[in-house]
Amino acid sequence: MEEILxxxxxxxxxxxxxxxxxxxxxxxxxxxxxxxxxxxxxxEPLLLIPIAFGVLIANFPGGDMGVYQADEAGxxxxxxxxxLAENIWEMSLPQIAHDxxxxxxxxxxxxxxxxxxxxxxxxxxxxxxxxxxxxxxxxSIFGAAAQMGIFAVLIIAVASGQFNxxxxxxxxxxxxxxxxxxxxxxxxxxxxLLAPIAIAAYSYMALVPVIIPLVVKxxxxxxxxxxxxxxxxKLFPSGQKMKNEKVIKIIFPIAVTTIVALLVPSAVSLIxxxxxxNLLKEIGSDTGRxxxxxxxxxxxxxxxxxxxxxxxxxxxxxxxxxxxxxxxVGGFFAFGLSIASGIxxxxxxxxxSKKKINPLIGATGLSAVPMxxxxxxxxxxxxxxxxxxxxxxxxxxxxxxxxxxxxxGVLISFLQxxxx
Amino acid sequence: MITNDIYGALQLLVVGMLTVFAVLLIVINLGKLLIxxxxxxxxxxxxxxxxxxxxxxxxxxDANTKAIIDATISKITGGKGRVTKVTKL
Lengths: 420, 89
Hints:
- The complex is a heterodimer.
- Chain A is mainly α.
- Chain A is built from 24 helices and 2 strands.
- Chain A has helices spanning about 1-10, 15-20, 25-40, 45-60, 95-100, 100-110, 115-125, 130-135, 140-145, 150-160, 165-170, 180-190, 195-205, 210-220, 220-225, 230-235, 245-265, 270-285, 290-310, 315-320, 320-350, 360-365, 370-385, 390-415; strands spanning about 75, 85.
- In chain A, strand 1 (about 75) and strand 2 form a beta hairpin.
- In chain A, helix 3 packs antiparallel against helix 4, helix 7 packs antiparallel against helix 12 (about 180-190) and helix 14 packs across helix 21 (about 320-350).
- Chain A starts with a helix and ends in a 5-residue tail after the last helix.
- Chain B starts with a helix and ends in a 13-residue tail after the last helix.
- Chain B is built from 3 helices and no strands.
- Helices cover about 70% and strands about 0% of the residues of chain B.
- By secondary structure, chain B is mainly alpha-helical.
- Chain B is rod-shaped.
- Chain B folds into 2 domains: about 1-45; about 50-90, no CATH class.
- The interface of A and B includes residues 133, 154, 165, 255 and 264 of A.
């Protein structure tokens, strides 16, 4: 009888959970907190809920839903030290599914190959309107300033001695606030760090409603936040008005892709797909079916699998170690510094310009479209209910997507072939 | 090794930020150029005002039908009534 009860106990997950001294409980707590933020607080629920559920299901011992991280040679070892795969890069996908489980199959097929990030960029492009950017082209430059966090944290991470330059670049790209770009860069430069970097990037993106107000509160005065952009526009009207917006919006993605492809070819897989999605949207009814597919079916499917797979990378073994904690802390600094540098550039511009700019427009220079703009609009309307800055914020926000993809392209082209 | 990496990171900071600024400046000026060119060579076509279908229906009534309606109304009202509007039900 005792033996039967013991066998039943060994069959359940309790035996492993208790043997692990509560480390699994930390992961469950983390999953519940993320689920709470997504469901109750509505922090980016489309992203946070799949990630949180991925974390939850990945951390039940015996469930085989956690993603195993391969080392640089492709070797996979489990928590007990057993070698599960000598070289995962030589395994076929059915073999991965059979030996390592469903989630590893999805992860190595969709994410590790670099397939999903450009697909998501295509969907983002289809959902992006470049109209606000074209109407406020002057404000787009703040999308460049907000990339400072990427390079600042790259230097800090290298100086800490914990990361080599490729790993530091992958960590820094979290500051771009763009999940697909962070994943794409990490796959190219430091694939063994993909799990913690993806988690940090997506978690901070989901926490934009918390991080932006924090940085804004630290750096901006009430007077600055009350700057009304519409009044400034009336006082100092901009020169050109678009007479034929439709034609401009169709030519724009084609022209930008061509220019970026010529200057930074390594960014084409991201920018090219972004602009392709946008082009299908702007053409209108002729490509309506394609636009509908990429902005709904494909985008939603990609988000579900990306969220679940990223969450499933967050296993006890992958998460509770110093490298991951370093990445989580460094990622936060990268994010915060990007927001801060955008704000600072607005402040410097305001020193020399008669037409004042609300610093919130600088804060949205990082990607995270359109959530960053929405959050900044909420902040500005809190100080002055008539001061809607959404359209102005979208200008720097959208250019931030281009900026972070270009920054990623620079990092990849400089570091990919560097031997350490 | 770390010194080399820091030097490399500083180099990336300069090159990276310059490239991002340069690309976005090009994109901004490209946008301005596009707006200027489109405004000059392909300003929006003036779309003819759409005529409401009901109004079209009234115009579609030919002169004979209008004359018959006028004559009928005139006879019924003893010459006092006049047709001002014909609406299709």
